[in-house]
Design goal:
Elements lengths: L14 H26 L12 E3 L20 E3 L4 E3 L25 E5 L34 E5 L9 H8 L3 E6 L1 H14 L8 E3 L5 E6 L4 E7 L19 E3 L5 H7 L4 E5 L9 E3 L8 E5 L1 H19 L5 E5 L38 H14 L3 E4 L2 H5 L18 H5 L15 H12 L1
Parallel strand pairs: 1-3, 2-13, 6-9, 6-11, 10-12, 11-14, 14-15
Antiparallel strand pairs: 4-5, 7-8, 8-9, 12-13
This protein binds 2-acetamido-2-deoxy-beta-D-glucopyranose (4 copies).
């Protein structure tokens, strides 16, 4: 009672006053909810908005339009207008016709991890010259190495056995490009590490880190490339190193500058997820004035980006191209998910989770549903590499403290390793090798 202002004796309060308070309360809550739903839109999907106006995506910018870059500023935000991307209709014919390759032949998503130190690892960490210090866990002191030796065993069938020479034959004369965030980059590094040993040292090369980084193998006339585009559409975070996580601004109706880079690739592998889980996103529509932007929650903003990307798939994708979409990569930030009552994270975890169908808080299911909706409309043009469930089991697969950290760690952090553990990315060799094995299986 004292908590609501110490007016201890409610019974004596006049009815009129109670009614008045109730009305004030109602008005406040309606306004409050309104504010949340229509302005901040936390966790809501776009379909929960009432008013809708459709925008044609990927149209040429007007002459005055300034591109988005790291120093784009936002002076103030305004209410979300309800603008959406006009949905492009693919061959999906609805949400059921999902283009999940291999779904008829074999469901790779349900299965279990089997310890197999005979077949795995597929390469040695120290033998891959392209390894990233962010993912080289053994080099950074990880002593328990079982994480390198697990094989993914689907329930009703086998994942095609990895073959480096066969993969090179599939890639001969082609450009394979990964597009996305640091998880996509990890998968790209895994792919290079899986393949590099069969490419003559003097006939392979890699370009310096830039938005588009290219590994080339002359013998096969093939490239394996990575394009940094963590939010798919154009954003103020398209620089490969300098990022502005605290203020994410996207151009929801345009991926043109990215698409120009990826349109020449033969095989495209997209991923995007975690950046949308980090708070609100500002929208700078192509015809907006500089400086004043709408704002949305991550899920709704991601849906806009996915729709713009889907429009590109339907209107611009050449008939011979292969397109894959990698589903969300789970994080393991809360050990209470798999060990109720505990207070840690992935730090110290040495074994996969065994409970079948395990699903933790690091996978946002509304995001999965939204991705399914968008991919469902596209039909067989886009193949899903559904890594979420199998990666969910791998709480042991993250670098935790065994990686290079770019920022200096404080003594407090150092004395409490779980406080700075990386439970997002994946050690290599490790889980992303299996994602690539799935790609190999489908190609
Ligand atoms: C594989 O693992 C088993 C069980 O942990 C162990 O006994 C064996 O020595 C390992 N073999 C290799 C080649 O590491
Ligand atoms: C190499 O591949 C490209 C396509 O990526 C093709 O246009 C070119 O003709 C190929 N060159 C040779 C020598 O095969
Ligand atoms: C936003 O702020 C910048 C610098 O603070 C200023 O140059 C610009 O004119 C402002 N834009 C608007 C629309 O107020
Ligand atoms: C991925 O697989 C999970 C089951 O493991 C399923 O619930 C989800 O719908 C699938 N996602 C897509 C986009 O197909």
């Amino acid at each position: 009672m004292t908590m609501i202002g110490g007016s201890g004796n409610l019974k004596k309060t006049p009815l009129l006053f109670l009614t008045f308070s109730f009305l004030v309360f109602m008005i406040f809550s309606v306004r409050y909810n309104d504010h949340i739903v229509s302005f901040f839109d936390r966790g809501q999907s776009l379909s929960q908005h009432l008013k809708v106006t459709y925008v044609e995506p990927n149209r040429p910018p007007n002459a005055e339009q300034v591109g988005l870059h790291l120093f784009s500023t936002c002076n103030s935000t305004k209410e979300y207008s309800g603008r959406r991307i006009r949905p492009a209709e693919g061959e999906g014919g609805g949400e059921s016709g999902r283009g999940n390759v291999g779904s008829e032949e074999c469901d790779l998503t349900s299965g279990k991890w089997v310890f197999d130190n005979v077949t795995y690892t597929l390469y040695e960490e120290s033998e891959c010259p392209y390894m990233s210090d962010q993912l080289a866990c053994q080099k950074h002191g990880r002593a328990d190495l079982a994480y390198q030796h697990w094989r993914w065993q689907p329930l009703g069938c086998d994942l095609q056995r990895w073959s480096t020479t066969e993969m090179w034959e599939k890639l001969r004369g082609k450009r394979l490009m990964f597009v996305g965030d640091s998880l996509g980059r990890g998968q790209w590094i895994s792919m290079i590490c899986l393949l590099q040993s069969a490419a003559a040292e003097d006939k392979r090369s890699i370009t310096p880190n830039s938005p588009l980084t290219i590994f080339r193998a002359e013998e096969y006339n093939a490239t394996i490339e990575f394009l940094w585009a963590p939010l798919l559409v154009e954003s103020n975070n398209d620089h490969p190193v300098n990022h502005k996580l605290e203020e994410k601004i996207i151009r929801p109706d345009s991926i043109r500058t990215h698409a120009l880079k990826w349109e020449q690739a033969d095989i495209l592998v997209f991923d995007t997820y975690l950046w949308w889980r980090l708070g609100l996103v500002k929208l700078s529509w192509s015809d907006d004035e500089e400086g004043e932007f709408e704002e949305l929650g991550g899920l709704a903003a991601m849906e806009l980006a996915m729709e713009t990307w889907a429009d590109w798939v339907v209107t611009r994708l050449g008939p011979t191209k292969r397109v894959f979409f990698v589903t969300m990569s789970p994080t393991h930030h809360l050990s209470q998910d798999w060990n109720p009552g505990s207070k840690g994270n992935c730090y110290g975890e040495k074994e996969p989770i065994r409970s079948e169908g395990y699903w933790g808080s690091g996978s946002h299911l509304p995001t999965m549903r939204m991705v399914e909706r968008v991919l469902g409309r596209l039909g067989p043009r886009v193949s899903v590499i559904n890594i979420t469930q199998l990666s969910e089991y791998r709480k042991d697969g993250h670098p935790s403290v065994y990686r290079k950290f770019w920022e200096t760690l404080s003594p407090e952090e150092l004395s409490n390793p779980s406080s700075y553990s990386d439970c997002k990315h994946w050690c290599l060799p490790g889980v992303p090798d299996v994602w690539n094995q799935m790609l190999f299986h489908f190609l």
